[in-house]
Design goal:
Largest sheet: 8 strands, mixed
GO molecular function: catalytic activity
Pfam families: Aminotran_4 (PF01063)
Family: Belongs to the class-IV pyridoxal-phosphate-dependent aminotransferase family.
Protein name: Aminodeoxychorismate lyase
GO biological process, one term: carboxylic acid biosynthetic process
């Protein structure tokens, strides 16, 4: 899809993040390796604001930029109004249109081990479930809609269906691949693979999204950027996945299906 083929009136940018009442205490315990604000119940809050700002700037949505560039406290207060029950965890989807009108969709999300929200070097919980990680059978052309998180997501939906992932509750992911055969990202996660005793994640030049947990992992030295060809993925190899709602997830590559 080209930028011109998506109507500015219908296109929206978004970012999904976790609200968790236990996060602030856990973040304060790991303050040396978790970004500010430590006392917020919103996972990687500042990174989500930055991501939305970058998307609005790319599309030259000046009204959206003006709203998004408010101070972080005001941004958090805006999110607070969407939380039905602050004693429970929620999956939030912050959606902003080209006029700067924003809304928050809040849905219940399951309780998780809060250590999963921190970089994997801080935890080695063997009881974490292992997601099935497929490789898309078709390629996706990088564009503004793969670089930035927008509601134009048909290509990701199609990739998930091709991999047989029919529900958001499935413990499964599909890796999106560009026409050069390079892994771009997962349909809802950032992937990390172990190579030469170091975790690596695809560079943005491969066409994927600058995810919030990806930024966190890179800032802490958990991983390096490196091009990953689909041909070098090994059937059965273990990997990590991450996103702004679930944190870091264990995965296992299923290269043939």
């Amino acid at each position: 899809m080209s930028e011109n083929s998506a109507s500015p009136q219908s296109l929206e940018i978004f970012s999904s993040l976790r609200f968790d009442p236990g996060l602030s205490d856990a973040a304060c315990r790991h303050a040396s390796s978790y970004p500010d604000p430590h006392k917020s119940p919103y996972y990687l809050l500042a990174y989500h604001q930055d991501r939305l700002i970058a998307a609005a700037a790319h599309f030259q949505w000046n009204e959206a930029l003006n709203w998004l560039q408010q101070n972080l406290q005001g941004f958090e207060e805006f999110l607070d109004a969407s939380i039905p029950d602050r004693s429970k965890a929620w999956r939030l989807r912050i959606v902003v249109n080209n006029k700067g009108k924003a809304r928050v969709e809040a849905n219940p999300t399951g309780t998780i081990d809060l250590m999963s929200l921190f970089i994997p070097s801080l935890h080695t919980n063997p009881s974490l479930p292992i997601w099935r990680v497929y490789v898309d059978t078709q390629s996706t052309t990088p564009s503004a809609f793969t670089t930035h998180k927008t509601t134009a997501r048909d290509e990701y939906t199609s990739a998930r269906l091709r991999a047989g992932i029919n529900s958001p509750t499935d413990l499964a992911e599909v890796l999106v691949v560009n026409p050069n055969g390079e892994v771009m990202e997962g349909s809802i996660t950032t992937p990390y693979f172990l190579r030469d005793h170091m975790w690596i994640t695809p560079p943005l030049s491969s066409g994927g999204n600058a995810g919030t947990t990806r930024r966190y992992a890179l800032s802490q030295g958990f991983c390096l950027e490196h091009t990953i060809s689909r041909d070098e993925l090994v059937d059965g190899e273990l990997c990590w996945l991450s996103n702004g709602v679930r944190g870091f997830i264990r995965g296992q590559v299923i290269a043939k299906y």
